[in-house]
Amino acid sequence: MSLAIIYSRANIGVIAPLVTVEVHIQNGMPALNIVGLPETAVKESKDRVRSALMNSEFEFPIRRITVNLAPADLPKEGGRFDLPIALGILAASGQIPHEKLNQHEFSGELALSGELRPVKSILPIVLGAHKAERCLIIPSANSHEAALVKNANVISAQHLLEVCAYLHGEKKLPACVLHSHLPVNINILDIAEVYGQRHAKRALEVAAAGYHSLLLIGPPGTGKTMLANRLPSLLPPLTEEIALEVAAIASISSSGFHPKHWQQLPFRSPHHSSSSVALVGGGRPPRPGEISLAHHGVLFLDELPEFSRQVLECLREPLESGHITISRAAYQSVFPAKFQLVAAMNPCPCGFLGSHKGNCRCTQEQIQRYIAKLSGPLLDRIDMQVEVPSLPGETLASIAVMEEETSAVVRERVLRAREKQFNRQKKLNKELEVSELQEFCYLEENSKSLLNQAMQKFNLSARVYHRILKIARTIADLADSDAIHEQHISEVLSYRCLDRNRVI
Ligand SMILES: [Zn+2]
Questions:
Q1: Which terminal residue of the chain, N or C, has fewer Cβ atoms less than 10 Å from its own Cβ?
Q2: Same domain, 217 and 149
Q3: Global pTM?
Q4: How many whole angstroms from 346 Cα to the centroid of ligand 1?
Q5: Contact 483, 444 (CB under 8 A)
Q6: Number of domains in the chain
Q7: Do the bridges between strand 267-268 and strand 298-301 make them parallel or antiparallel, or are there none, so unpaired?
Q8: What spacing in Å lies between the alpha carbon of 308 and ligand 1's midpoint?
């Protein structure tokens, strides 16, 4: 038979759709043609495949060879089709048996010597093959990453000859196993290292418990970044299933996945000069941006007003929907992007408003203009705005002697409050729909009248009202209280400092 069919996989976003590599050998002018919209890298694979076959002492058929990568409209990149193409040529020319081919999938780049080189984005490929219940054969260098998918049938080889020996039934290939026991959620930053700042720490705890977004406002050096860096230490560790989702996104990113990050809660802090492509994803082929790399973790935007307005506007869609759609001419890529947003900013352009360290000479107008740099719609989506004041030296010294609570202690409370939420409504408070608020965030008379007063005084919108209800629910949950009391409402109001400023 001069026709062979081999299975492999492409990548679109975090999914790896099946690609059928068809190889047909016929009489005619000797040539090797690859069709099915291959990009430059696939065209180059012609030369690699030819050299690899000849250097492995196979016969390269001096006939007309047509390779079709189907479906044709799927974008294909990288050298990962080298191995399937080489095997297709060998099968179609009768140099290896066909029997086992349809129960296997192949992915791997070939060196000119016939050795197998690792491919990028292996995790989605492993997940795809696992779902299709086929055995996947990959380069040995990819095996540690592939081993993260438990129970998947994946074997690895170092050389094209080993794969051929396996298909001939002459050799067994090793299954992928984790080379060592991977450490789980190593977050060494502890909240106890932040001295003082009780109010901001408490706000961080509330944010962690209810999945609320948070903006920290304060002069430089007051510990805003330290606080944000420690949010992951207050959150529950990732389950294996979620860790795999996180690893799959890292796997398709330009920097790839590192096993040392396995089950570590993502914490991303892009610089304010980042482009919108770097932040939300894009490029050719589309790669996930910072917001997707922060999936199931924390996205920290320091110096929020310094980000370009256009970049910040791009955050609106993922903040609502939990994913981002990137459209290219022929196809769309959807990347998951469900993250907890923490932002920080100075109180004024010079940064020293209300600080003990420097004198602020900013005018009221300059300050207003600075805050107005954040668009209303974005600010509307940030649940809590908390001041992180600068502390005079002597206060810090007196606090330093006192015991600070560790992350482990705070996390216990956070986990209990989260459990309460899941038992009551099967989701976190932040994720409550407006229609559910009446049932789950019912207010007592006193609480209601306090909130109504604040609404009038600060001229708050209905959207803000709903936000306050959800945060109050979280504070009540932390206190293990079924009812939302007055003190819960007044605590929420202390986390809305920009509302108060707006009135000034
Ligand atoms: Zn200033």
A1: C
A2: no
A3: 0.85
A4: 9
A5: yes
A6: 2
A7: parallel
A8: 21
pLDDT tens-digit series, residues 37-51: 666 767 788 899 999
Distance in Å, CA 469 to ligand 1 centroid: 33
Range of the domain at 268: 191-415
280 and 347 housed in the same domain: yes
Give yes or no for residue 23 having a pLDDT over 90. Answer: yes
Residue 463 within a domain: no
Residue 245 lies in a domain: yes
- pLDDT, tens digit, for every residue of 166-211? 999 999 999 987 765 555 556 678 999 888 899 999 999 999 999 9
Query: What one-character DSSP code corresponds to residue 180?
Result: S
**How far, in Å, is the centroid of ligand 1 from the Cα of 376?**
22
356 CA distance to ligand 1 middle (Å): 12
Q: Give a yes or no: residue 48 inside a domain.
A: yes
How much distance in Å is there from the Cα of 360 to the middle of ligand 1? 4
Could you tell me the distance, in angstroms and rounded to a whole number, from the CA of residue 279 to the centre of ligand 1?
A: 29
Q: In angstroms, what is the span from residue 361 Cα to ligand 1's centroid?
A: 5
Query: Tens of pLDDT along 233-276?
Result: 999 988 888 998 999 999 888 888 887 788 889 999 999 999 98
Tokens of 103: 């129960």
Measured in Å, residue 365 CA sits from the centre of ligand 1 at 11
One domain, residues 130 and 25: yes
Centroid of ligand 1 to alpha carbon of 314 (angstroms): 29
Starting at the edge strand that comes first in sequence, how are the strands of the sheet with 3-9 ordered? Answer: 31-35, 64-70, 18-26, 3-9, 104-106, 135-139, 154-157
Pair (139, 213) in one structural domain: no
Give distance in angstroms: CA of 352 to centre of ligand 1: 5
pLDDT in tens, 133-162: 999 999 999 998 898 888 889 999 999 999
391 Cα to the center of ligand 1, angstroms: 17
Same domain, 157 and 234: no
